[in-house]
Design a protein that fits this description.
Structural class: alpha+beta
Oligomer: single chain
Number of domains: 1
Strand content: 15-25%
Shape: flat
Length: 83
């Protein structure tokens, strides 16, 4: 593996480890500050969402959700094409 492939590989691994935290509105700043204090801001993205109940935080793997959605669309397109 050449150096550029190594860099791309490790960049992808780093990107794949990121997660998104959904929290109730008004809690995002405090959650971001706590993550910053622990030196983990490179791993977490915080988003406020009105669908999250008060006192809860949801953890999402957005890359996995996007990949799953793309796969579902491809499967559906393939199935339509076979008819």
């Amino acid at each position: 593996m050449d150096i550029f492939s190594e860099i791309r590989f490790h960049a992808q691994v780093h990107e794949d480890t990121k997660r998104t935290l959904l929290c109730p509105p008004g809690r995002a700043e405090a959650l971001e500050a706590a993550i910053e204090r622990r030196g983990m801001a490179h791993l977490w993205t915080v988003k406020a969402s009105p669908v999250v109940p008060s006192g809860q935080v949801f953890v999402l793997d957005e890359q996995a959700l996007e990949a799953s959605f793309r796969q579902t669309v491809q499967r559906a397109a393939h199935d339509i094409g076979r008819r």
